[in-house]
Amino acid sequence: MAISFVSRRCIGNLHKSRTKNCFGETCWLTRPRVGYGGMSSPDLDIVETLDNLGLEPLRSIWLEYYGSPPPLRSPELFRLMLAWRIQASIEGGLEPSTRKQLTRTPVPKAEGLSLGIGAKLGRIWKGRMVEVEVTENGFSHDGEIYDSLSAAATAIAGTRWNGPRFFGLREPKT
Hints:
Radius of gyration: 27 Å
Number of strands: 6
Largest sheet: 4 strands, antiparallel
Distance between the termini: 54 Å
């Protein structure tokens, strides 16, 4: 009964500002609620006391300042998340340039390109020697250029293969 009462009070006191949080997710509440529960914002000293708290007290602190707590079961992870959130609300959080970098997903490089341009990978497949050369554009085999080592291995074998495993760059699964 007390939980639903607190929930209704919290819902009525949300800051309805739609923004992005530190993970790039759109959310309704990313800053502390000014004036809720008699406190304007969390004090930095509260971070030091988080080490001694269990999961439920951590959730109630989150609920008091930030609304509905995340569905975490790990007190250690919750403690770290809450400490960061308190520090970010007091000191300003991440710079916009850092947020932008975190939201960018880097284009993964094909495994095997680190061997260097001109490197040759070979193996005996069905009684004949097959060879793939690392080029600037990918992997070359029999005049064809493949984007990945796996694409080259699949073309050679005629069935789906993991390229690094096919050419012995990885240990086989046991």
